[in-house]
Request: fold
Amino acid sequence: MITQSYLTDLTDLTYKINGACIEVHRIMGPGLLESVYHQCLIEEFTIRNINFKSELRIPVNYKGKEINCDFSCDFLIEDQIVLEIKSVSSLNEIHRAQVLNYINLLQKPKGILVNFNVKNLYHQGQETFVNKYYDMLF
Reply:
């Protein structure tokens, strides 16, 4: 049984992730390669004592067989939230589908998509997604 404190922890973790992304964006600004933001987030998560896995390999099963492919998400935070980062002119549906696929394949309740190539990260650069695993928490 999921408790209200778990949902509160998930919400608090979302705020912590967004805060770390905003800090990186505040210092580095828009217009850099995704790899730069990735490395900066590794440092920021470490400073903030946020547990994460970087470039986590995602298992893909097809008809009951694990397919050997190089498929990974940018970050898995606290084994609960997938964070996918971009540095593109605008987010599009393929980016959103990517995050939804990641959270479904990893069976995680929440995913965050962040685009660092915007002027205001909070208002323009982040989207949050939930799936059936989130719904099952209720």
